[in-house]
Structure formats: structure tokens, C-alpha cells
Amino acid sequence: MGTAKSLGCWLLLAGLDWGGLKTCVRHAAAPVDAVLVITKGGTYSGTYRSSASGVACVRVATAEPVVLDGCVLAGPGHLIVAGEGADLTVRNCRGQGLPPTVDKQPTGRFVDAYRPRRLVVEHNEFTQTTGIGVNRWASPGAPAQTLTVRYNQARNIDGRWRNGGGARASFLILNTVQHLPGVDVAYNEVLNTPDQSLVEDNINLYNSSGTAASPLHVHDNFVRGAYPFPATGGPFTGTGITTDGDAQTLAAATGFVEADHNQFVGIGNSAMNIASGHDVYYHDNRAVSSGYLPDGRRFSAGFCGLGVFNYYRQPGGVFANHRVADNTVGVVRWGGHSPSADRQDEAPDACAPCQGTVHLPGPITLATEQAEWVRWQAKLALNGLTVGPLTAQKTGN
């Protein structure tokens, strides 16, 4: 444990240049479910490429601590899969999603984890994937056995199928990760390009919760873009962030969530929704949308900046105790009326807890959106932070 393991390649290609990295590449030989299956703890690096939707690049099949450091991954399926009880750190890795090889299935996730006991995803770059998915959690143990997602660069979260249509995809989705203290989702940079991506909720918290003493904390992230496909179409139900989930009891519902100092730019439907759960606190965030795509085409899928509504008709004691305060919003909705014509900073009749909203002066333009990017870069510089891998190599587009 703790030493880098250079794993032999099945196929050595002299002079291979994929994404600017000349190295040997390990390929999957059917029938297997992953190019590399890790059964022993330690630190692993290397280049792993899959050519089939059903074959992951790396599968972690041990509860011993595993670190993936500096890996280069590409494939149409999940790039990294972690099984029950995994203790996994993914850092300085680069992932490239490839087109699916089967119908009615999108490109896989960068990380897909089922009931891990510790998961750290930091300083990575991944493109054209369906993001990070965490499905349930092993029983909370030591304070360090929690979820950390920080300093990552994601490009084009993409749920499209090769045969038309698509699936819901997120930069980060937590499914039934309940009562977990210490969760930190921070300083991630997510950029989605119109007509090259299909994201639903960039961040979706589904029946997932922190604790009263340690809320699930989502802060200081920059998220740009949530569009239908094609981007000029509609209707669209995506968001920047939403609390979600159909649980009908306090213990099972999404709860104890704090989201602050995030920036959501050019988001279709709603920048920030509370659609489920209890004790959700959104404050000091920024939401800006000009009503135009970056190339100047009109963007008609926008609805509002802030929305709070009981989508699942949860009982009064379950959908309760929400606070939405001191957010700065300037969202164009063609035909909207809040606070002025063609604006909808707050959802009509669905923002009762919203207080102290700062409405940006109009007009809200593409230049206003670009100013948010400048603000984000200044924030990183002020805090001495770098997002993405801390090494120089880059994956291909």
C-alpha cells in the first residue's frame, strides 16, 4: 500500500499518441467487465481504454484504501466503478467519454460508486461523460469516511443516446446517501456546451441528506449551461441544483443541505430548485441567464432563477424548514414579469421562503454572463486554487 503500481500492458503500441500522451495502453479482452480490476489496496496510475459500453476502464473490488492518481481513461461505459465498501481516492485523473456502442444507453459516468464507505474525487478533468454517481452509502464510520468532490473540471455532461433521445445525466447525483456528515462539494467547474451536451440537474440530491450538525455542503462551484437537445428546443426540466426525491418520511427524505456562494450561468428551466425535502438552506448564490445561447441564438428553455415547490406532495412535516436568502439573480425568461418584463428571477407563486433576493439591473446580456466567468477566475486566484489536474497532460477533445 502507498506505492505507485505500474501495471503491465496487454498491448504495447510504439509511438501511440492519444490525447497528447505517449504511453502503453491496456485494452479489455472480452468477456470482462473492466479493463483493470483492482483487488488490493495501493496507489495506481496508467492509461486504460475500453471499447465497449459494458466494460469499465477500472473497477475497484476491494475495501482496502485505493488511490487512482494520474490515470488517463477513455471509454463508452463507466470509466471508474467502485463496489460496496470501497475506500477510494481519485485525483489528477483525466477521463474522456466515447460514443456508446449500444442503443438507448448514454456514455458512462466518470465515477460510479455503490455504497462506498469513503470517496474522494479531487483535481480531475472529465469530458463527455454522465458525471459522478453515488448510489447509497455504507454505514457512516469514522469522521474521515465521507464524500468529498472538489476542484474538478467537467466538460459536457452528456446523456444522449446514439440512436436519438437520451437519459437524465448530472455532474453529480447522490441517490439515497443519507445522514452522512462531512460531505463537501466545492470549487468544481462545470461547463456544458449547447448541442454538445445533455444534462438534467447539474447537481441532484435525491433522498440524500447530511445531519443537523453537519449539513451536506455544496459551495463555491461554477456551473455554466443546462440545455435541451437541440439547445433551441424545449420543454426542459434541468437545473443548476435541485433537492429531489419521493420519500414520504423525515428520515428518508432529502434534508440538512446548505448551498452557498455558487454561480449558475445560462441554466435552462431553473438555476436553483427546492423540490423535495426539509431543512434546505440556499444563500449567497448567483444565478445569471441572458436568454441567449453563446452564439447569439435565442434560448427559450429558461424559466426562473429560484424555485421552491413541493413536487412530490410530501407531508407538511417532511417538506419544511426551508430558507432561501440573499441570492443575487438576473434571469431572462421571455414573457416573464419578475422583477420586470422578460425576467423571472423567482418562480411565480413558488418562492415563498425567498428573502433578500438581489435583482441584478437589466439588461441581462451575454456580457453579463461572461462577467460571471471573470468573477469565478478572480475567486480562484484570490484563494490560490487550481481546478483540474495538478499535472500538465491533457486529454483529447
TrEMBL record:
Name by which UniProt lists this protein: Right handed beta helix domain-containing protein
Species name: Hymenobacter nivis
